[in-house]
Design brief:
There is one protein chain. By secondary structure, the protein is of the alpha/beta class. The chain has 11 helices and 14 strands. Helices cover 37% and strands 16% of the residues. The chain is globular, with a radius of gyration of 22 Å. The two termini are 34 Å apart.
């Protein structure tokens, strides 16, 4: 993958193309099959709502095919899929569409480690009278089901909890959360953006009302996402101006992006188990190299067992994350969520699981992906070790 000028080096007998992209929680590269789908679809004009000619019918067939692939990925029905511009819009549509004004006397329960596209809308709703309550998470980022249940009341209008965290990779017990919500008759929404590429997501779980997805987190195009909304659920629109998608989300559908999303979902469904095991193996090799090096002081954040296989959150001793990243131009990694990278403060996820602001400032995130090789993983570990040792010598 290229970014600016590309460089190729040899490592352990294999070519490594630099910079090496290891930030797959922020976005994933297009799968070659998705790229082909995009080009083929862009060549054909057509609006799926223009049904007076063959081009419109062809576009509608393309959209419906993509819907079936996306629905199959999460064990849903095609008519339960609403297309959006991405996961941020899908999350906003779920919150504002399921919890409607007046907000006074209504409560939404979430966790303190949610993505900003959940927390920021909730702050706006809170200004208008909504009560926002946070269920506790432990030091590994797992929600306390006991605390969650204790906070559900007759005022609870929605529970919204991520399927998996985008910074530390911790996977939440969705089936148990959904069952708890079902028992109390409370709608449950989950942001499944990070989990869909490698984890089995079952939208048919009793109690699960809505679920958000994003194509570019599973090797599809940027600019297209979806909201699963269970059949029979009332959803108020947040946009107005057309009758598309039963008026729940108006606007002309981007046929090519949707087609690419569908292909990406089909591939994710087919490759899910293989991708999961492959990424877990790569992550373990990288972990082993770092842990076994006596000169590197590092610890790993998140649940060691219930986690996204390719997401690694590493807190280093003595070395600032930004200094370490600047010392490694060969690697494209991050200090946390891409959506909050310019906020200037410590990660709300890391501080919520007990890290001090100083420790959060020494934390980097590595996101492995489908096309990362074992040799590239070993190379990345060697670069991290060398950079860390160089920085230690300057102190």
């Amino acid at each position: 993958m290229t970014a600016g000028s590309e460089q190729t080096i040899m490592f352990e007998g294999a070519e490594i193309h630099l910079p090496l992209f290891l930030d797959h929680q922020s976005t994933t590269p297009l799968a070659p099959e998705v790229r082909d789908t995009l080009f083929q679809t862009y060549e054909q004009p057509g609006n799926q709502d223009s049904l007076t000619h063959a081009f419109g019918h062809a576009a509608r067939q393309t959209v419906q095919k993509a819907k079936r692939h996306i629905a199959a990925l999460i064990s849903a029905h095609a008519d339960e899929i609403i297309f959006t511009s991405g996961a941020t819009e899908a999350n906003n549509l779920a919150l504002f569409g399921l919890v409607t004004p007046p907000y006074a006397g209504k409560q939404v329960i979430t966790t303190p480690i949610e993505h900003s596209s959940i927390l920021s809308p909730l702050k706006e709703m809170e200004k208008q009278g909504l009560t926002v309550t946070f269920a506790a998470v432990d030091g590994q980022g797992r929600v306390s089901l006991t605390d969650l249940e204790s906070k559900i009341s007759g005022q609870t209008a929605l529970v919204t909890i991520q399927s998996a965290n985008n910074e530390i990779g911790t996977i939440q017990p969705l089936s148990r959360i959904a069952a708890l919500c079902a028992a109390h008759g409370v709608p449950f929404h989950t942001d499944a953006v990070q989990a869909a590429a490698t984890e089995k997501i079952d939208a048919s779980l009793p109690g699960l009302t809505a679920l958000s997805l994003s194509a570019h987190k599973l090797y599809g195009p940027q600019g297209i996402g979806a909201l699963f909304i269970r059949r029979g659920t009332s959803l108020s629109p947040t946009l107005f101006g057309g009758d598309q998608q039963n008026s729940r989300r108006p606007g002309t559908l981007p046929t090519a992006l949707i087609a690419g999303f569908g292909t990406a979902a089909k591939l994710a469904h087919q490759n899910r188990d293989h991708d999961h095991h492959s990424l877990a193996s790569l992550a373990q090799r990288l972990r082993d190299i770092l842990i076994q090096n006596p000169h590197v002081d590092v610890r790993f954040n998140g649940d060691p067992d219930n986690r996204l296989p390719g997401c690694l959150s590493l807190t280093f001793g003595r070395i600032e994350a930004e200094d370490l990243i600047l010392e490694m131009p060969e690697l494209a990694i991050s200090t946390g969520s891409a959506c909050l990278s310019s906020s200037g403060g410590p990660s709300h996820v890391l501080t919520a699981i007990g890290l001090s602001p100083e420790e959060a400032g020494r934390t980097v995130r590595i996101g492995l992906g489908r096309y990362v090789t074992e040799t590239e993983c070993a190379f990345a570990a060697s670069i991290i070790v060398a950079a860390y040792e160089r920085l230690l010598k300057t102190q």
